[in-house]
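User: Structure please.
Assistant: Input sequence and predicted structure:
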Amino acid sequence: MTATDTALTGLAQGWCALSLLHGRIETHIERALQTGHALSVREYSLLDVLSRQHDGEGGHLQMKQVAEAVVLSQSATTRLVTRLEDRGLLTRYLCPTDRRGIYTNVSEAGLRLLAEARPTNDTALREALDEAAKNPGLAPLVRAVASRGAAV
């Protein structure tokens, strides 16, 4: 393969379009969440992921799993958890069956903020997708995202 290979160029163009769509969506949601709720996209995502935990078997996530879910390194995830804990939005406690494990739960204040922010996130996502759909280069990706949402 060479740098001018049409398959490689098409693949690279697809990746650039996907990256552009992601960036536009994230920027739009970030502004909306910061303005309305003093939350970043990463903070919102972390609260959302942790709010889905449950007390049943396998219901709590290890920090590695949380990091994968919010697409951050483990150290960045730990720093994010600490910031949200300092704001009273999260609590940490020892795992009752493994004293080495530490679990993180969303506090009542965190659940309230998440509930308030969810409509803002959803509206901003819809707005960003609607705007991106006007761009012929991004429209197929928007359709793919929309069809994935309908299938879930």
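The chain has a mean pLDDT of 90.
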